[in-house]
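dumping this here before i forget
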Amino acid sequence: MFNVASILVLVLLAVTFIQSGYDKAIYWKDNLTWLKEHFANTRLKNHVPLALFHILVLELISGILAVVGCIQLIVNNGRTFGLYAGIFSCITLIMLLFGQRLAKDYDGARTIVLYFIPAVMVVYWLS
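structure:
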């Protein structure tokens, strides 16, 4: 039980990204409509569908890696998949943060930083 903190953060990342990816996939049109309006005055305005697809893929990769990382830590104390989950989570969150800052949604950007902190912690712990 040396990796309890890492497992808990990986569970947090798994729940966050799998739920968010699921929401984007199931409610694609609604998300796309809202995001087109959100980014209407930015350089991303003509690239929203592609950006949304990229974020969806990265969120699902991050979430799945977090689940596999938890299992690997529990089964054989392996750290590889958990580390990759943390790295992919950080990349995903940086992309989300970039979008929020571009849209001048500073409250949204601040919220993303709250998820970024534990993601960086898990990268540190598992590297």
